[in-house]
Amino acid sequence: xxxxxxxxxxxxxxxxxxxxxxxxxxxxxxxxxxxxxxxxxxxxxxxxxxxxxxxxxxxxxxxxxxxxxxxxxxxxxxxxxxxxxxxxxxxxxxxxxxxxxxxxxxxxxxxxxxxxxxxxxxxxxxxxxxxxxxxxxxxxxxxxxxxxxxxxxxxxxxxxxxxxxxxxxxxxxxxxxxxxxxxxxxxxxxxxxxxxxxxxxxxxxxxxxxxxxxxxxxxxxxxxxxxxxxxxxxxxxxxxxxxxxxxxxxxxxxxxxxxxxxxxxxxxxxxxxxxxxxxxxxxxxxxxxxxxxxxxxxxxxxxxxxxxxxxxxxxxxxxxxxxxxxxxxxxxxxxxxxxxxxxxxxxxxxxxxxxxxxxxxxxxxxxxxxxxxxxxxxxxxxxxxxxxxxxxxxxxxxxxxxxxxxxxxxxxxxxxxxxxxxxxxxxxxxxxxxxxxxxxxxxxxxxxxxxxxxxxxxxxxxxxxxxxxxxxxxxxxxxxxxxxxxxxxxxxxxxxxxxxxxxxxxxxxxxxxxxxxxxxxxxxxxxxxxxxxxxxxxxxxxxxxxxxxxxxxxxxxxxxxxxxxxxxxxxxxxxxxxxxxxxxxxxxxxxxxxxxxxxxxxxxxxxxxxxxxxxxxxxxxxxxxxxxxxxxxxxxxxxxxxxxxxxxxxxxxxxxxxxxxxxxxxxxxxxxxxxxxxxxxxxxxxxxxxxxxxxxxxxxxxxxxxxxxxxxxx
Length: 714
Hints:
By secondary structure, the chain is mainly α. Among the domains are: 3-137, no CATH class; 576-671, Tetratricopeptide repeat domain (Serine Threonine Protein Phosphatase 5, Tetratricopeptide repeat), CATH 1.25.40. 71% of the residues lie in helices and 1% in strands. A two-stranded antiparallel ribbon has the order 1-2. Helix 20 (397-413) packs parallel to helix 22 (439-455) and helix 22 (439-455) runs antiparallel to helix 23. The chain is elongated. The two termini are 53 Å apart.
C-alpha cells in the first residue's frame, strides 16, 4: 500500500497492533503492551506526579525533557504541574521512579549544559504514551506544552542561547505538528507561534519559521487588529524573513505595511517606526537601489536626531547604516566619518566593551580593509574579537562571525595558515551551535573553499564549494542569490582547473539566475558578467571578452559611478585585455585611469598596500616592458614588489616572481640589449560571496573579500 495509507492505518490501529504483537521471551510471554501497563500501574501507586509526568510527555518530543522547560506554569495551570516543578528534588524524584521501572533514562548529550540534565524515553514507549495513555487526546495539555516550549525560547541577551535553542528544536517540531493538525485547544497560541518562529529563524529553518510567523500574524490580526503594534511586529519579522529567503517583493510589501501602520499608530518618530525605515533601507541596499536606501537612512537619521537626539543609539544605528552604504558606494572617506561617529557615540552611550559597540568596531575593520589600511583593520578585528570573547565567550556565534572575518582578512594578506585556523574554528563553532546544514556554517565552508583555491588545493576547494552549494540548494533553493554566489565561485574554480566548459556552464547559470532575481543592471549580475569576460579571455575569445567587460563597465559606471573601486577593477581587466590584443595605447589609458582612481579612493599613503592597485602597477610594468621601455617597467615592478612584500611578505609567490623579473630587467639594462619578453598581467576577478542568517546583499559584498569569494559579516 502507499506510504500515506500505511501511516493512516498505523495511527488508527496502534493499540490493536500492540495488543496483538508477538510475545517476547524476555518478558515471560507478556506483551509489550501489558508490560508497560503493569509498570505504569506500579508507578501510579508510588507517585502520582510520576504518572502525570509520563502522560504529559506525550505532548513533547521523546528526547531530553528537563526541569526548567516545565517551570513556566502560572495560577491557571494544573496544581500538579506546579508541584512537580517547584524544585529540583520534586522533579528528579518523579523522573527517578519512571527510570526505576525502565520507562525513561537519563538523556545523554555531548552538548554543554547550562540548565539541568534531562531525561529521554524510548520512541516506542513514547508512542504508547500518545496512543494508549492519552487515548482521549487532552487538548489543554497540548496547549500547555506549546506554552512551555514557546516561553522557553531564549532572548538575545541569554547566556549561550544557541545551547537552549538546540535542546528546544525537537520539542518545537512536536509543537508544530500539533498546531498544524489542530491538536491544540482553542486557547490563543499566537504569541507561542511567534516565539517558535524566532527559534526557527535562529536555527536557519526558514520554511518552518515562515509557517509559524504566518500563524502568529493571523492570530494577532484576529485578536487585535491589522494595525495593532503587536501585529505590525509580526509583519516586520515576516519582512526580515522574506528578505532572508530572497523574496524581496514580499519583503518590501511587509515593510511598507509595517511602516504605514507604525506611523499611524505610534507616530513618525517612534523607535518602532524608525526601525522599520532602517529595515527598508537595508532591503533597498540589498536590491542595489542605493539612492532609495540612502533616502531611507537619511530619513531615519533626521527623525531620530530630532526626536531622540544626536547621541541616541537609534540615531547612531542610522549613522552606522549610512556609513556602510557609503562604503558600498565607494565613498570611503564619507564612510569612515560616519562609522567613526557611530563608534564614538556607542562608546559614550554604552561603553567601549558593549557588544553593540563591538559590532561597530567590526564594521570599521571592514572599512579599513577596503581602504588598504591593513594594520588598523587587524587592530579593529582583534579588538572586536577579544571584546566578544570576554562578553559572550569564544563559542558565541557573534564571536565566530568576527573569527570568520579575520580569516577572510588573513587570506587577503596571504597569511594562509592563520586564515585556515580562523575558518576551521568558525566552522567547528557553527556546527556545534547550529549544525552542519545551517547557512552560517555553509558560509564558512564556502570560505574554506576559497582559501583552498588560493592555496592551490583545487580538489579540496571543489569539495568545500560542492558541500556549500548542496547545503544552500537545500536551505534556500537552487535560484536563491546566495546559492548563485557559490555557483559563481565554483565557476571560477573550474576555470582555474582548466575545466572551461564546466566553468562557462556555471557562469551562465549564475548569470541567468541573477538576471531573474535582481535584473540585468544589478551589481551581482555585473560581477558575473565581468567573470565571464575573464573566462572568454582565457579561452582566447577576445572579442567576446571585450563585450563582457564593456557591458560590466557600463553597468558599474551607472550603478556605482566611474570612480568606484569595483568599476576600476573592470577597467583594469579591460587594460589587460587590450594589452593582449596589442592595443597598447588603449591599454595604457585604462591602466592609468585605474591607478589614478585607486589613489583617489584609497588615498596616496595607503595605495602601496592595496592589492588591486598593486596588480595594476604590475600590469603597467608589463605594458612598459612590451613597449621596450625597460626603465619605466623596472620602476613599476619595484613599486609592486615594495607593496607585495608589505602585504604578503618577501617569500610570497608574487613577491618572488617580481623579484626575479626585476633581476632580469637589471641584467638587460646592464647589457643595454633588451629582448622581447611576453608577460600577462592578472585580471581582477570579483567573485561574490554567499550569505548566512541574512541573504547576500550589497552591504555584505566587501570588495577585498569578494575578490576571493569570501564573505565578511557586518
